[in-house]
């Protein structure tokens, strides 16, 4: 028996996701449509948030902000680094959002990648920020003297 094709695996995974979340999405969309109509908006949800609109661009942008936030605040957090399961879950969540970003951004630009390319694309490191950008760990409160950092030092908030 031949091993399944990667495309088949990706499609099976997508179908599993659709089945798991589709009823929830449909229910939330129905509620949103009702709220939208009650607010007497001149544009439909599709006109305001459909592919190619500013509303869609906004959601794509927020998706990337969350990918970066996960990198900056969770991936390098000491508690997460100490626990392999937690670290793996954080990375999986980040990868899922990054894949969604690539897929939707590609659709908006008319340059979609194949599902297998998107699912295997690594999350790039975040752009470097001035001064490093790693999480700054403070000593326990009893070791601080009330300034911005540890006793006897002026801290600029960077590593």
Task: Walk me through this protein's architecture.
The chain is extended. By secondary structure, it is mostly helical. The longest helix is centred in the first third of the chain and has 33 residues. The termini are far apart. Among the domains are: 34 residues; 74 residues. 61% of the residues lie in helices and 0% in strands. It is built from six helices and no strands. α3 runs antiparallel to α5.
Give a summary of the structure in a few sentences:
The chain is an all-alpha fold and 159 residues long. It is built from six helices and no strands.
Order of helices and strands: HHHHHH
The averaged pLDDT comes out at: 74
Number of strands: 0
Oligomer: single chain
Describe the sheet with the most strands. none
- The residue fraction in helices comes out at 55-70%
Based on secondary structure, the structural category is mainly alpha
Unreliable stretches: 112-121, 123-144, 147-159
Annotation keywords:
about 160 residues, mainly alpha, 6 helices, extended
Secondary structure elements and their pairing?
Elements: H1 6-38, H2 45-49, H3 54-75, H4 78-82, H5 84-109, H6 115-120
């Amino acid at each position: 028996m031949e091993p399944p094709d990667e495309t088949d695996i990706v499609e099976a995974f997508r179908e599993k996701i659709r089945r798991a979340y589709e009823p929830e999405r449909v229910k939330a969309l129905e509620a949103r449509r009702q709220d939208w109509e009650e607010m007497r908006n001149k544009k439909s949800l599709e006109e305001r948030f459909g592919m190619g609109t500013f509303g869609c661009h906004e959601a794509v942008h927020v998706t990337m902000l969350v990918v970066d936030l996960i990198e900056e605040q969770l991936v390098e957090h000491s508690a997460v680094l100490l626990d392999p399961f937690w670290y793996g879950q954080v990375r999986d969540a980040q990868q899922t959002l990054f894949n969604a970003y690539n897929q939707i951004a590609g659709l908006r630009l008319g340059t979609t990648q194949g599902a297998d390319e998107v699912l295997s694309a690594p999350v790039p490191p975040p752009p470097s920020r001035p001064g490093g950008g790693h999480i700054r760990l403070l000593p326990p409160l009893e070791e601080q003297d009330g300034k911005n950092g540890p006793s006897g030092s002026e801290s600029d908030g960077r590593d």
